[in-house]
Design a protein that fits this description.
- This protein has 24 helices and 32 strands.
- By secondary structure, it is α+β, with helices and mostly antiparallel strands.
- The protein has 8 domains: about 130 residues, Rossmann fold (3-Layer(aba) Sandwich); about 140 residues, Orthogonal Bundle (Topoisomerase I, domain 2); about 130 residues, Topoisomerase I, domain 3 (Distorted Sandwich), CATH 2.70.20.10; about 120 residues, Orthogonal Bundle (Topoisomerase I, domain 4); about 60 residues, 2-Layer Sandwich (Bacterial Topoisomerase I, domain 1); about 55 residues, no CATH class; about 55 residues, no CATH class; about 30 residues, no CATH class.
- About 35% of the residues are buried.
Length: about 850
């Protein structure tokens, strides 16, 4: 019997059908081991020896693989055809060797598509494990571990509130922060454009002023309204005739088929998918045999696939759409490894696969791959120059005509930031024609700052710089969002306070390790290991030799020294020049002290040097410019009629708050974000200061129910139990009946009772196989999908709003295949039996539990 190990249960099922009798196919469910999240997992003093530990939730699967391997003649490792796939095969082999279950005959096979011909061909051409790829994996894993477990503790101790740092994650964050700095430093420049609406033979077209008073006009030449109005009058007064008509042929070639990064970029532009969602959907399409492997930076296609694509083009269009020779592409990205094909359909006769997001992504992949083998588009660009009678003023009109669409008939590549390319069609004109002038406009414009990065443009930038690898981009971006270093607004990355502070800290103390060139150079070294051109331990030694002493040096500095260095480094950002010669650090409250950066338990903030006499503070991210919402100190709202004390509105490092009276014991209350600023006054302040509000005594327990606002928002409290409120207004409006109901619902929803009735967040429809209704529910540990029998928790990176029925079914199928829930149900009788059995048997049951984690 031959044992075949793949990564996913979906692949295992399909491949077992292809291989037939004599083969047993099992899934590893991805990686089976990793470096434990503790000190000492990588030992730099012992040749960077690594201590691997099996995932606790893979114990059952590893046992199943080991049990089958003991009876197998041959082990065939058929994990994915990339570095991670090679690593998984190596881990499985090492685990089986450790358990003395490794067959003598071990083979490694790879296939780029899960189709019967591809799988059978791979089985006929096995090879040994690629030691260079395994070394590259170990080097990357060790490097990421050493950076994370060495640098993150420095952050935690020297920069309160920081969460983590990573070798590539921190550099990607720096890109986002650097772009924000460019935007903040940008000074808009005024300019004016003068255009004329004209008409020839009944066809309207637009011209723009390109020559005025004998001088060439560039975009920024006319910088004020006076000049613009003067130019407008000259155009209105002139009689313009065609001086020249120039027509140039243009050819546009199709883009290559998708790589991992270009697929992520285009799916973000055209479908609005996040990088992580794109990769999940692509993974499903790959496992279904619809597309080739989706982690690749190669742009070439297999010869057979090119022939199939050309045949599909000929069937869909006429022969003119098929170029004379097949197109061959080469990757332009830095560090590109072209070991794999581009992402393409496995069958070009299928132009539709699946439904929902799967169908949309497949359609994109199909059209891009097919278009890559189509004829070029032929266009004609026409430029018409018009001059007035004096020859002093000139207008220009441009237009573009598609003579032959070629690949544009099927596909046109999207752009991150559209330009203002003029592709309008012009009427036929010849030299000497005098088109009718209908109207002239002078319009004011301002230059725009560079746009914030979208997921697509950030992935593109990282690829251009050679930072990270395409297969890791999705997880890098997700980590930045999970750490709350950035937020996504209108599909653009905005760095948060914590992200800016971490980046500044790393730039100040670890500048080399967040530099773009150094990171790209390290990637090249790691790629050299993959290609057998470098030894992995030597690459790690070269890195560790400089990195470790630097972390020790920073760790030895006092927190106050670190804060002082950051205060100086961030001075231009935190205290920008006001333009009037005044000191930007002067405290706006006491007008004597100077402002500086301080470190606190919950992060950095700005404070006055005259503390404690002056208690002025502001948040780190709240800049001090006159037009930047500067904190002007306490604002008196009025007097509390009950105590006669003054009520003030203030701003601290955690945001705005109200205070009753003065002194150390003064009562304070945070101002929630859902109270409109224009509505906030003394009434609201007194309400907030009066919290908690007692609603009354619970009719069943006789204990008080209170409403208040806490760290996680408004809530109800009763006898040590809590219930959420949806808004600040509810804190003051909720009555006894509503409070009792909300507390009961909270108890039912948060407890272990399965009988609680809760409304689904979303109903997807019926499972096509069982007919059971599939729903999205809010659970104690986050959203999950259920069909009434199986519950599957959504991954943290999943977006519940974009989840489809197909995605829900895939999660349920994967969960059902793992079978933990079934195992838990069986455990109860054993436990019960153990209670009645002799003590020796109870002790014997505990022994296997200690073997949940296997080390190698």
């Amino acid at each position: 019997m031959k044992l075949v190990v793949v990564e996913s249960p979906a692949k295992a099922k399909t491949i077992e059908k292809y291989l037939g009798p004599g083969h047993r196919v099992l899934a590893s469910y991805g990686h089976v081991r990793d470096l434990p999240a503790k000190d000492g997992s990588v030992d730099p003093d012992n040749g960077f020896a690594m201590e691997w530990e099996a995932y606790a939730d893979k114990t059952r699967q590893l046992k199943a693989i080991a049990d089958e391997a003991k009876d197998a003649d041959t082990l065939i490792l058929a994990t994915d055809p990339d570095r991670e796939g090679e690593a998984i095969s190596w881990h499985v082999q090492e685990v089986l060797r450790k358990r003395r279950a490794l067959p003598q005959d071990v083979r490694r096979v790879t296939f780029n598509a899960i189709t019967k011909p591809a799988v059978l061909d791979a089985m006929a051409h096995p090879r040994a494990l690629d030691e260079d790829l395994i070394d590259a994996y170990r080097a990357r894993r060790a490097l990421d571990y050493l950076v994370g477990f060495t640098l993150s503790p420095v952050l935690w101790r020297k920069l309160p509130g920081a969460k983590s740092a990573g070798r590539v994650q921190s550099v990607a964050l720096r890109l986002v922060v650097d772009r924000e700095r460019e935007i903040e430093a940008f000074k808009p420049q005024e300019y004016w454009s003068v255009t004329a609406d004209m008409e020839q033979d009944g066809v309207p077209f637009v011209t723009r002023l390109v020559r005025w008073k004998g001088e060439k006009i560039d975009r920024l030449t006319i910088g004020n309204q006076g000049d613009a109005e003067a130019a407008k009058k000259d155009v209105e007064a002139g009689r313009f005739a065609v001086a020249s008509v120039e027509t140039k042929p243009l050819t546009r070639n199709p883009p290559p088929p998708f790589t991992t990064s270009t697929l992520q970029q285009e799916a973000a532009r055209k479908l609005g998918f996040s990088a992580s969602h794109t990769m999940r959907v692509a993974q499903n399409l790959y496992e279904d045999g619809a597309i080739t492997y989706m982690r690749t930076d190669g742009v070439q296609m297999d010869g057979g696939a090119i022939s199939a694509a050309r045949g599909a083009i000929a069937d869909r269009y006429d022969a003119s759409y098929v170029p004379d020779k097949p197109r061959q592409y080469q990757a332009k990205a830095k560090n590109a490894q072209e070991a794999h094909e581009a992402i393409r359909p496995t069958d070009f006769s299928k132009d539709r696969v699946g439904t929902g997001d799967h169908a949309r992504l497949y359609d994109l992949i199909f059209k891009r791959a097919l278009a890559s083998q189509m004829a070029s588009a032929r266009l004609e660009r026409t430029t018409v120059e018009l001059v007035d009678g004096s020859g002093s003023h000139g207008l220009r009109a441009t237009g573009q005509v598609v003579l032959f669409p070629g690949y544009l008939a099927l596909y046109e590549e999207g752009r991150d930031d559209e330009g203002d390319e003029d592709s309008k069609r012009l009427p036929r004109m010849k030299e000497g024609d005098a088109p009718a002038k209908k109207a002239v406009q002078a319009e004011q414009h301002f230059t725009q700052p560079p746009p914030r990065y979208s997921e697509a443009s950030l992935v593109k930038k990282m690829e251009e710089l050679g930072i990270g690898r395409p297969s890791t981009y999705a997880s890098i971006l997700q980590t930045l969002k999970d750490r709350e270093y950035v937020t996504l607004e209108k599909n653009r990355f905005i760095p948060q306070e914590s992200g800016r502070l971490v980046t500044s800290f790393l730039e100040r103390f670890f500048d080399r390790y967040v530099s773009y060139d150094y990171t790209a150079g390290l990637e090249e070294s790691l790629d050299d290991i993959s290609g057998g051109r470098a030894e992995w331990q030597k690459v790690l030694e070269a890195f560790w030799r400089d990195f470790k002493p630097k972390t020790v040096e920073v760790m030895e500095q006092k927190p106050s020294e670190v804060t002082a260095a950051l205060d100086e480094f961030l001075g231009p950002y935190l205290f920008p020049d006001k333009g009037d010669g005044s000191d930007p650090r002067l405290c706006p409250a006491c007008h004597e002290g100077r402002l500086s950066l301080r470190g606190g338990r919950f992060g950095a903030f700005i404070a006055c040097s005259n503390y404690p006499e002056c208690k002025y503070t502001r948040r780190f991210a709240q800049k001090g410019g006159a037009d930047e919402g500067e904190d002007s100190g306490p604002v008196t709202l009025g007097t509390d009629p009950a105590t006669g004390l003054e009520v003030t509105k203030r701003s601290g490092r955690f945001g705005p708050y109200v205070q009753l009276g003065d002194g150390k014991d003064a009562k304070r209350g945070s101002i929630p974000k859902d109270i409109p600023a224009e509505d906030f006054g003394l009434d609201w302040a007194l309400k907030l200061l009066s919290l908690p509000r007692e609603i009354g005594l619970h009719p069943e327990t006789g204990k008080p129910i209170t409403a208040s606002i806490g760290r996680y928002g408004p809530y109800l409290a009763h006898d040590g139990k809590y219930g959420r409120l949806s808004s600040t207004a509810e804190v003051f409006e909720t009555g006894m009946n509503a409070a009792v109901v909300k507390l009961a619902e909270a108890a039912a929803g948060g407890g272990r009772s399965r009988g609680a009735s809760r409304e689904p967040l979303k109903v997807f429809g019926a499972n096509p196989e069982t007919g059971a209704e599939v729903k999205l529910m809010e659970g104690r540990f986050g959203p999950y999908v259920t069909d009434g029998t199986t519950n599957a928790t959504l991954p943290k990176s999943a977006d519940p709003a974009t989840l489809t029925l197909e995605g829900a079914l895939a999660l349920l199928a994967e969960r059902a295949a793992k079978g933990p829930a079934k195992g838990k149900k069986k455990a109860a009788p054993k436990k019960a039996a153990a209670k009645t059995a002799a003590p020796k048997k109870a002790a014997a049951k505990k022994a296997p539990a200690k073997k949940k984690v296997e080390k190698a």
